[in-house]
Amino acid sequence: MNPDVQRELIPRDDTLHLIAALDDIKAKLLAAAQQWQLLDGTGHVPAAPSYVELIQHAADAQALSRSVVQLTADFARTDHSTNRVGSTVLAHLATAATMSSLAAPHFAETAETALSLRRPSGPTDRQNQENRMVIDHATARAYLRRTSESLRDAAKELSNHLDIHRFFPTPAHRKSPAPPPPKPSTRHR
Question: Residue 168: helix, strand or coil by DSSP?
């Protein structure tokens, strides 16, 4: 066993825990990107889009982003983030942190524009506002999807890393040393 390679290993339990955390956040991001819709069933902006619903998209996206950024910061503080695999994982997490941070402002812009639709305006102005809403909302959802892809890539890297563990016994699986033989009796008969 190469001790240099073994030093590069992220402990199995840490790896499994991180993969589970990544999968959990990834699933939440994908669900949000699919469920948070702006357009109605006909593919148009509703006549009166709900500001409350749209600003909730921004709030929820902010919470998801906070989870991604915190996970990234926590991993960056570990010694594992500096080895080869850890650096690759950290790069994926850094991309995810950036992408997730960009989603919430676009959702907030969508909500703000929805409020402006309530004021009387000409048909051209309304069409421009609706177009801007569609673009902002779609962009925000795309950032959520891109975040989930980066988390998926980080988890995939960690899963591949787990394969290396099978070549190195973990301390829990190492055989205990054989007990020492009994000492000869020093008593004379």
Answer: coil
Q: Helices (DSSP H) in 117-188: which residue ranges?
A: 123-165
Give the Cβ contact number of residue 178 at 10 Å: 6
Q: Which two tokens stand for residue 12?
A: 């199995």
Who's near 38: CB < 8 A, 6+ residues apart? 45, 49, 54, 110, 133, 134, 137, 138
This prediction has a pTM of: 0.81
Q: Please state, in angstroms and as integers, the Cα–Cα distance from residue 151 to each residue in 2, 44, 82, 87, 121, following that order.
A: 30, 32, 18, 14, 43
Residue pLDDT, tens place only, 76-116: 998 888 888 899 999 999 999 999 999 999 999 999 999 98
Could you tell me if 138 and 20 are in contact, meaning their C-beta atoms sit under 8 angstroms apart?
no
CA distance 167 to 129: 59
Question: Do the Cβ atoms of 19 and 27 come closer than 8 Å?
Answer: no
Neighbours of 77 (CB within 10 A): 9
Distance CA 75, CA 170 (A): 22
